[in-house]
Design brief:
Length: 591
Amino acid sequence: MKNAYIRTKEQDGQNRHNEDSNYVDNAVGTVKDGSKKVARKAVTAGEYGKNTVWKIRERRRAGTNTSNSATGVYQPGHDRKTGAGVSRAERKLDQTLQNPVCQPANKAALQAGKTYGQRGCKIKQSVGASSRTVKQPAKGMVKTAQRRVKTAERSTKNAIKTSQAAAQTAFKTAQSAKRAAQVARAASRAAVASAKAGAKTMVATIKAIIAALKSLIAMIAACGWAAIVVIMLVCLVGLMSGSVFGVFFSNEDTGKNTPVMTEAVGRLNGEFAAEIERIKNENPHDTLDLSNNGSSNMVSNWRDILAVYAVKVAADPEKGMEVATLDDTKVGILWDIFWNMNKIDYWLETIEHTNGKTISTETVLHIRVTAKSYSDMIAQYHFNPQQVGMLNELMQYKYQQLFMRLIGSYVNITLSPQEIAAILQNLPPDLDELRRNTVLAAYSLVGKISYFWGGKSTVIGWDSRWGTLTKVTAEGSPTTGTVRPYGLDCSGYVAWVFVNAAGNADAVEIIGTGTSSQYAACTPVNWSGALPGDLAFYPDLSHVGIVVGKQNGDLLIANCNAGQNNVAVTSVSGSSSSGFYMIGRPKFFRK
């Protein structure tokens, strides 16, 4: 459009550049010249025609004697035949003039001869009129053309302005699209970062939603964006509470005299422990054989139980209910699931002992607790594919902290970046990754768990049983028979660390669960050659710890001990007959 406008303007300028050389003036000049020539020729023809006509008339008068007496009509043929006094050209002209077809021309010629002067004047006058006639329409055409050019110019300018406006709009749209793309990319990066954050992000999100609900009235009073945020949060909470994720809100007090999830879990734990005690009390025995190294008097699968409960209640295709709150019906469903997933079997066994002289009997009470996992319940409860998908989602590691909070015994064992940096300062820079993970797992429980004689765990992360008051049933300790917060003993701590370093509960089969089995799973190493991740033992294998670094030439050994009733890091300058004496390199590292 712009180029077309420029060409039109240039052509208009050229046409108006020199009015004397304008095509209109040229046309007028041509008409004038032609008219003058026609006028001169007309005058000449008139003179010639006049003389010719007079000559013909004279000759006709002289030849009247040859006329046809009967008809009285002049016979030109007779004259041609005789040829008397008439030239050949004159005879030819006479024949032409006498031809009937040429009679109008003959008359016109005569008339032209008579009025040649008037014709000449009229032609001259016509020249001027023609000039004016040609010039005026031409000038009108020029003005019309000029007006059209100006109209085209205005249209072109408008089109250019429209195009420019459209271009600006398109540019702004492109900028908006670019900003939207940048926002989308930022959102994508934020989503990736959120996915990497895992459990921390989910916990923070749900805690923020809960906090927003608690302060709903205050935020609405603030109006503005705060109200919009509240509305969005309420919508999000509504969606989540109506799904299986609503179980994560079940610890909030509704004020309706209904229990929260932590209270329901505590009641069921109490019922479970009471059932173990009932079996023990109703079955007199000399020896108690309790499965899972004596810790079967505690529920170890609460996370699986709550996940199954959430799916069974919220995702029931026929009579689904929200799981953000508890009532008698939901507590009853939770009770059924709990006992279906924790089956207690027991029996008595009498064993005879003899030393060759006397025979004695021993009554052994065997108690076995079968704790089912979430996958065991899929077939039992006939979960459909959609429910199975939800169950698998809930059992992902990123939701573990949320479940632990529902169980009521959760402690955050995640190391901060500052803590990790301080730990790495005491480690060799080229340390194997598996050894480094072992050290970090060992430090994660320092100061956070009680010593419990016979306490074992192969749970990845925090074990929900820790901190729960439990009776010590393993023999050989001054604490046997007492009720204490459940935790780990020294070998149980070592086993848990290696399980979490590998991220696999099967690692316990390699490292072992007792000090003797753990020593057998190691290769002896000189004290000076100890590396982070190696094990340190007492001479009598009564205690074990994990080497977690060196500081000022001393070994740093993490261990769960009864004296401090917790996990601590001990600095040891050298082997001692009354303390850590031997170093073993676990075959777990394979080098």
